[in-house]
């Protein structure tokens, strides 16, 4: 679309210049081209030409404004061609697979099929999420154990296959009827962490694994994402919240960014670009909330997200902010944000162009998440 607009503007300028100089020739009756140009380029003529060009540009602007309902935004790239998903096979040795990958598969086998990861970041289990996708199409995160075997899987795209017939879009009632009673608490050491009654997910203990099925409240409570964690990996995590190391903080930040883009692609929107400067603004707000024990878009000095960005020298034409607190991972934070309408609208705002994510941990290792969206 951008190239088309450049051609239109170029042709408009040529057209305006042509009409202007033709009119000049008619008015002055100069015979040769060289004499016409020489006598036309004076201060009065240049002023007249600029006025003519301005009128033409304003006319073009009006046309595009009237047609904005069916033309793409000038500042938004056109959608890339859809990338086909793989043909999914019903798993044989385990109830669920993602991208035809199951727990216990060898990393070498996975990467022979998916290629090299786009990103590797630390997660709350003390291992890394290896993130695979093609411009955020066919998005999957995979964790490997010490033997280079799949120990964790996640996707929020249509890559879920199951011997139970459960897939993305399956209704919650069918999931519960099929998988039975979900867990209501998760025990860590001597402490049991109870799950919220109004949760937008259900966790099941299935064949030496914990399967968390996430539901989209805004899509009739249907399956929107799936996370599979091996029992050994979950049992090795001794606490619900883990120490907020620098690597984990950065891991949560990049994971939220990738999860956001995967959700945007699900909704036929362009991925956002990473903004390092905005990440720093987001980090400072997360740290301020963590250190001063509050949770709000307005900080203790009365500054809004927009004030904070401007104070950091970040200028924008539009901006927005999402906050989350208490979720023990980027996955749970993102799925929670997608089920909150205001936060969901920011994630799926077609006019946003970039995103910076900042995470900080309080003294109890509970993470605060700040997402700052903007268009410059």
UniProtKB/TrEMBL annotation:
Under the heading InterPro entries, the entry gives: CAP_assoc, CAP_dom, CAP_sf
Domain SCP residue range list: 258-370
Q: Which residues form the CAP-associated domain?
A: 103-239
Which protein is depicted? CAP-associated domain-containing protein
């Amino acid at each position: 679309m951008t190239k088309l607009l450049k051609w239109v503007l170029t042709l408009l300028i040529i057209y305006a210049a042509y009409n202007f100089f033709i009119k000049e020739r008619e008015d002055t009756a100069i015979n040769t081209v060289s004499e016409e140009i020489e006598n036309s380029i004076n201060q009065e003529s240049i002023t007249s030409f600029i006025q003519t060009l301005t009128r033409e540009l304003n006319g073009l602007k009006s046309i595009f404004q009237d047609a904005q309902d069916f033309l793409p935004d000038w500042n938004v790239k056109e959608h890339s061609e859809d990338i086909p998903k793989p043909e999914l096979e019903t798993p044989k040795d385990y109830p669920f697979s993602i991208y035809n990958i199951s727990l216990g598969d060898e990393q070498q086998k996975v990467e022979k099929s998916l290629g090299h990861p786009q990103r590797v970041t630390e997660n709350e289990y003390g291992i890394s999420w290896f993130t695979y996708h093609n411009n955020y199409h066919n998005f999957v995160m995979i964790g490997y154990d010490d033997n280079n075997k799949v120990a964790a899987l996640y996707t929020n795209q249509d890559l879920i296959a199951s011997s139970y017939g459960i897939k993305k879009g399956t209704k919650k009632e069918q999931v519960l009827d099929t998988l039975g009673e979900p867990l209501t608490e998760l025990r860590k050491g001597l402490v049991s962490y109870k799950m919220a009654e109004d949760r937008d997910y259900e966790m099941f203990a299935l064949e030496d694994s914990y399967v968390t099925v996430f539901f989209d409240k805004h899509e009739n409570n249907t399956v929107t994402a799936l996370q599979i964690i091996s029992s050994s990996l979950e049992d090795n995590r001794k606490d619900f919240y883990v120490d907020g190391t620098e690597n984990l903080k950065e891991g949560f930040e990049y994971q939220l960014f990738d999860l956001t883009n995967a959700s945007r692609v699900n909704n036929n929107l362009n991925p956002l670009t990473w903004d390092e400067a905005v990440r720093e603004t987001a980090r400072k707000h997360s740290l301020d909330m963590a250190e001063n024990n509050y949770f709000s878009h307005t900080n203790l000095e009365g500054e809004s997200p927009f004030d904070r960005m401007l104070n950091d020298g970040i200028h924008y034409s539009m901006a927005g902010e999402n906050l989350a607190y208490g979720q023990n991972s980027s996955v749970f934070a993102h799925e929670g944000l997608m089920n909150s309408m205001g936060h969901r609208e920011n994630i799926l705002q077609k006019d946003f162009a970039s995103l910076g994510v900042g995470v900080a941990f309080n003294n109890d290792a509970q993470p605060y998440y700040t997402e700052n969206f903007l268009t410059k």
